[in-house]
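PROTEIN FOLDING TASK:
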Amino acid sequence: MKISQVGMLRRTVAVAVVAGIAMLRLAAPGMAADEEPIKIGILHSLSGTMAISEVSLRDVDLMAIDEINTKGGVCITKGDKKTCHKIEPVVVDPASNWDLFAEKAKQLLLQDKVAVVFGCWTSVSRKSVLPVFEGNKGLLFYPVQYEGEECSDNVFYTGAAPNQQAVPAVEYLMSEEGGGAKKFYLLGTDYVYPRTTNKILRAMLKAKGVPDDNIREEYTPFHHQDYQQIVQKIKEFAAGGKTAVISTINGDSNVPFYKEFANQGLTAADVPIMAFSVAEDELRGMDTSALVGHLATWNYFQSVDTPENKTFVEHFKAYAKKHNLPDADKRVTDDPMEASYFGVYLWKQAVEKAGTTDVDAVRKALYGMEFKAPSSMVKIDERNHHTWRPVLVGEIKKDGQFKIVHRSKGPVKPEPWSEYTNPDKGCDWVDHQGTYQK
């Protein structure tokens, strides 16, 4: 199926699922009249250029809610009284429009009165909603890898900081195990995440002795489709030695980029692409035959071999079929989905520990909280609102899955401020008021 057809199906079903939320809200068997449901917001693009990635986050959030509700909901104990509350999702579509993200966030917090929001993908969408959450005592769980340089009291970051994805990815490429790359073409979509990430990577490469002449940097707008000239420039740049492309291309632009890369005869053996925003969910809408051998670095792959992951994958596939999601028999899991999924459970645990949905109490309860996620045991850092996660490098296979070729020895401590660009800064909400000078 062509990617345009997949996108059309996803957008069509998105409308149907949003319309069906009213029915889901009523599906709370056994709820007593005094057990009010707890509303939570889901803020993901169900249309526009980012729908290719974000629709599945909506889906996995709803699956987590369904699992929790089936097991009795969120149970709060006050004194001798225990009440269990169903979760009522409020789903909105900011439609890949960054200004609309802020409007929808305000709607969720002020009109719908949600206790927490799970949402955003791009950093520009997160930056757009940040003043809304900080100005209205809201709580956001952000599930996608990002560029760091942020330390908000109103956000919990379950995706990777730069030292948990971008930096170890390039270290792998430079190692003998990863091919010993000496030249790097930094190619990304033109917004804050790729530019800041590449600023960190450029500083890292220079610290490791890579000369400026061996680093190129280029950006394209969202939804960019014509990569012919860029790939030609990559070919010319790569002619002089071992070269790797570091891709921070986001959304549907990945499809024409990889296609043009193959059309011009470049392979992973010649010039490997290391991607930070291409995972299993994007690959299922692409012809993967020309992508075999290219790489991605994440903190989770569907191919992770743990009992928890086997259950997670099976449950999601069953959920997709039960709810008639598009391409239900071909649905996959990926890193942002796992991060969004375990974020819902961490919030549930924190509410139960705090005995309330109050943001201040839940925030405090989250510090140091652990959860046995599909990938491994994950933990919210005791101080900086980020998550300890393992680092995995995967090689794309023909079936759209990843062969794990490298992994960290265990979960990696998150560092919101990079040692390469801001060695004097730290993030600490216990002994400091967020970002501080070391």
About this structure: Residues 1-33 have pLDDT under 50 and may be disordered. The chain has two domains: 3-160+304-390, 164-298. The radius of gyration is 21 Å.
